[in-house]
Amino acid sequence: MRQDLTRCFIEAAHLLESADSLIIAAGAGMGVDSGLPDFRGPGGFWQVYPALGRAGLRFEEIASPAVFRSDPTLAWGFYGHRLNLYRATVPHAGFQLLKDWLEAMPLGGFVYTSNVDGQFQRAGFAEQQIVECHGSIHHLQCLAHCSEAIWSADDFFPEIDAEACRITSAMPRCPRCGALARPAILMFSDWEWADGRSETQSVRFNAWRREVERPVLIELGAGSTVATVRYFSQRQNCPIIRINPSEWELPSGRGVGIPSGALAGLGGVQTWMGHERCAKAHGISHSGG
Predict the structure, then answer these.
(1) For labeling, which of 12, 19, 88, 273 is most exposed (least CB within 10 Å)?
(2) Residue segments in the chain with a per-residue pLDDT below the cut of 70
(3) Which residues does residue 215 pair with via DSSP β-bridges, in sequence order?
């Protein structure tokens, strides 16, 4: 297994070194090495939010606009806790490796993520290089949907009773109509998400994507349960480096799968960057396609 993993790292390093640009596609597993929960299954979710476990509420049930209407202090208890958690989290060292690789590319790169945590911005990636396909918890919108406007949550500092999973401070309000505000993220059974910011990000990515010829895509922590990131990766028609501890397989000829967590996988690839002689010793070559 160790020999096979080494071969994967070398192959991934060669894909990176032969590319003119880098696409980073990240799912929930990207944040695990920073200490963020991935909410995998009701058991893991309820361990982080025991009050929701006692109530028998699954992630799909609390992550819904309907809860902001029926029980707003509970809804903001959940999302306010997450907002505080993401603000306090330091991105793991793998983010810096990705940033270094992206900046070394002749034609730069882009991030595409389903995560709403803002960790790529916190790690120093430029706003103009990020697509947040499910929105961002660091932005707010009107629950009454009086307009498509969103605004920054930077001035909102929720105080949370973690044991009860309820907000104890004032909840944010829409500056236009005074209605309750909600996070500007795509939730379950959500037909009112203000997606203009994400659409603008996607337009920017698509314009850049048309200008690059030999991109390589690194996919990190993106599973098949909510497969938004995986669908995106497969549409890019370029080699994929898939780093995932349990779902690393790729169709033959599409790239290389690395059975690892994000940080360990990225570190392993970094070890072999520039090791042309070692790669030849392992009998690895890369045609660029």
Answers:
(1) 88
(2) 1-3, 40-43, 275-289
(3) 21
**pLDDT at residue number 281:** 45
DSSP state of 274: T
pLDDT of 141 reads 98
**Alpha carbon distances (Å) from 93 to 30, 85, 257, 265, 269:** 11, 18, 21, 12, 13
DSSP 8-state assignment for residue 117: S
Output the pLDDT for position 274.
79
pLDDT of residue 43: 65
3-state secondary structure of 132: strand
3-state secondary structure of 257: strand
The whole-number pLDDT of residue 41 equals 63
> How many angstroms separate the Cα of 9 from the Cα of each of 31, 95, 247?
21, 17, 17
Per-residue CA distances from 40 to 59, 65, 226 (Å):
10, 21, 11
Parallel, antiparallel, or unpaired: how do β-strands 240-243 and 255-258 relate?
A: parallel
Within 10 angstroms of residue 187's Cβ, the number of other Cβ atoms is 23
Cα(184)–Cα(118) distance, integer angstroms: 13
- Going by their DSSP bridges, the two strands 181-185 and 135-142 should be labelled as antiparallel
Name the nearest CA neighbour of 222 among 118, 147, 130, 113.
113
The SS3 assignment for 216 reads: strand
Gap between the Cα atoms of 141 and 129, Å rounded: 23
How crowded is residue 27: how many other Cβ atoms within 10 Å of its Cβ?
25
The predicted model scores a pTM of 0.92
Tokens of 243: 């780093």
Nearest to 36 by CA among 262, 241, 230: 262
> Can you give the pLDDT at residue 283?
55
